[in-house]
Fold this sequence. Notes:
It is built from 12 helices and 9 strands. By secondary structure, the chain is an alpha+beta fold. Strands 1, 2, 3, 4, 5, 6, 7, 8 and 9 form a 9-stranded mixed beta sheet that branches. Helix 4 (67-86) packs parallel to helix 12. The longest helix is centred in the N-terminal third of the chain and has 20 residues, at 67-86. It is elongated. The relative contact order is 0.14.
Amino acid sequence: MKRFRVKVTDFTRQRVLSWPVVVVLILSGHKVSLQNALNKFFRVLGRLVDVVTASAYSQARQKVQPAVFVHLNAVACEEYYTRYGADHEVVLWHGQRVLGVDGSYLNLPDTAETRQRFSVQTNQYAGGEQVQALASVLYDLRNDLGLSAALGPKQAEKNLLFAQHLAVLQAGDVVVGDRAYADYSVMATLVARQCHFVIRFPRQSFTAVNAFWAAPIEDQVVTLAVTSKARTYVAKHHLPATLQLRLVKVQLATGEVEVVGTDLLDAQTSPAAEFKEVYGWRWGHETYHDRLKNIFELERFSGSSIRAIEQDFYGVLFLATLES
């Protein structure tokens, strides 16, 4: 409480809306009207006489930093790896975690505050505007855990990887990304942190990758030079100016061919045939985002303030981890 309350004077008096009551109320979600949700909550506690007003609760929740749910999620994930790891039940690939990084857009309440903080998406219909945020999650693809999350305006997805997710990566982790992450600065950063990557490449990207698309070969190691767009970032962070990249062609069930790039260069320890399965594990990340939106109903926010939106977002991530 002392760490995650907004002010040092918050929750210092004995009130009905105490710290644990407010935190659990936030986690309980509000799929019905706020007052009905409060009535139900206090009825379950056997304290119907203590029911507060929706206004009182809305004010009390403003005293809670959303970061409390980030902390709880980190604790839950750490517990999982420690306890299940001791029983050899954590699912790994060649002894390493396989983590997906991906973003998804969320529709937010339309207020002056959310318009200023996030992005406004317009469409062809008169007055058709929607406030949206980019939600990025670093997700353990084999163990169904959201390890890290970030919420921000529309931007390059790699920015949220750099700003938020790098902090929870461990040496040896294998990061799987779609074409949004086929970027020199992303690959160089992961290599510098002793992590690995498996990234899907578009047809028009690096010169060496373009040549591989056209060549009648299935597996090749090439050298990439830092791109002009990434040069400033690479120099600032003292990253390597060249990278060894292994390119592998993967044939999908539809017959379509895709190219994945990886820094796992040894064909003996990392056979080319395995990369189709590894990249295919990304589908679990897609269903995870779907679960957040449609099962947890993440976009049905219980408040319209920035703090309430962030509480709901990080709270739902924590609940999904507990469920997993």
